[in-house]
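Try it yourself: sequence plus 2-acetamido-2-deoxy-beta-D-glucopyranose, in.
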Amino acid sequence: MFWLIFFTLQAVCTSVAHAMQHYPAAWGHYDVCKSQIYTEEGLAWDYMACQPEATDMTKYLRVALDPPNITCGDPPETYCALENPYMCNNECDATTEELAHPPELMFDFEGRNPTTFWQSTSWKKYPKPLQVNITLSWNKTIELTDDIVLTFESGRPEQMVLEKSLDYGRTWTPYQFYATDCLDAFTMEPKTVNDLTQRTLLDIICTEDYSRGYVWKNDKTVRFEIKDRFALFAGPRLHNMASLYGQLDTTKNLRDFFTITDLRIRLLKPATGATMVDENNLSRYFYAISDIKVQGRCKCNLHANSCVFDKGKLGCECEHNTTGPDCSRCKKHYHGRAWSVGSYLPIPKGTANICIPSNHGPVRK
Ligand SMILES: *[C@@H]1O[C@H](CO)[C@@H](O)[C@H](O)[C@H]1NC(C)=O
Ligand SMILES: *[C@@H]1O[C@H](CO)[C@@H](O)[C@H](O)[C@H]1NC(C)=O
Ligand SMILES: *[C@@H]1O[C@H](CO)[C@@H](O)[C@H](O)[C@H]1NC(C)=O
Ligand SMILES: *[C@@H]1O[C@H](CO)[C@@H](O)[C@H](O)[C@H]1NC(C)=O
Ligand SMILES: *[C@@H]1O[C@H](CO)[C@@H](O)[C@H](O)[C@H]1NC(C)=O
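Structure, out:
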């Protein structure tokens, strides 16, 4: 009985991790770049498409806030609870470690009691908007493999945009809009991820699913649903990853959709509770985030199965005689044919598309 419950829970909670990392061999692991085989001429290398394992990408990011001085505690401030203006025991003081709420606390270990979190200044300048950009940068292209999950310590924002960049922060595009009222905030019809189909997978939607702050106090998370989007091709429990990989192989837009170098959380309006903003007690309104989850893997164009963090920088350990942070070029003397991304097909080992020696180069076979 105990075991049954354990396994059931485990199955529900980690179905994606399993699907992504431990799917049956028939679907391909893509965790090996080459293996030795015996041929008539003796030992030879067999090359395969490969990619690094998915992991917690928050260990490798840089965080920047805009405005930079928006973190609470300088000068020290006392906050009241959103749902109870007489409960004012939340003190923020940047000079005292126990009372400070710096941005790093969004990425520290969860499960501490009390929770640690980043917190903004309060909405002192109401009705001037209280807006904050939180920018997460990897300085490396990465591929998302699981939902992005933000956990808010106080109410969830009433308006927010999640944006992404694919060019190291030069240009930004929205990933998803969040509001208590999508029409009012962004003149967009409210939708949910369940409204998406294979054809409309790349549509950018506004959702009202994650913005109710006051009534649903126990629901503290805001999600960007990667798994549900994968499921449009891979089936509800991601049992058909081959189908997803096949699509990723042939549709560059789809591959790029899940690929980022940076994320930006644009907090546009804090939770104000069920009533009007109480102008006499603006210390009830602020943003506080206790956790941000970003699961993914380095994008290595299927030419590396490992990615290392060295001197503050992520880089693929390129195989197949490719090079560059994303293995997106052929190594010197290996320009015998044009560089090409590896392919997930045919399942299960894919095609390595290795770089071959230049015809007239100094290196010969
Ligand atoms: C942040 O700095 C700007 C100018 O440097 C200033 O106008 C603003 O009041 C500061 N904000 C806070 C919350 O201290
Ligand atoms: C309003 O905020 C102050 C602190 O700024 C607090 O002392 C007070 O109890 C709060 N509540 C009300 C209802 O005024
Ligand atoms: C946040 O980023 C957006 C663009 O992504 C920019 O327009 C805005 O000025 C930035 N700063 C703030 C405080 O919102
Ligand atoms: C980003 O990585 C490149 C090398 O790929 C490096 O030259 C640059 O300094 C890095 N930028 C930051 C902000 O770390
Ligand atoms: C890459 O080049 C080296 C040196 O010539 C060679 O030993 C190796 O087998 C090559 N690898 C691939 C994947 O072609």
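One thing you can check immediately is this: The longest strand covers residues 132-144.
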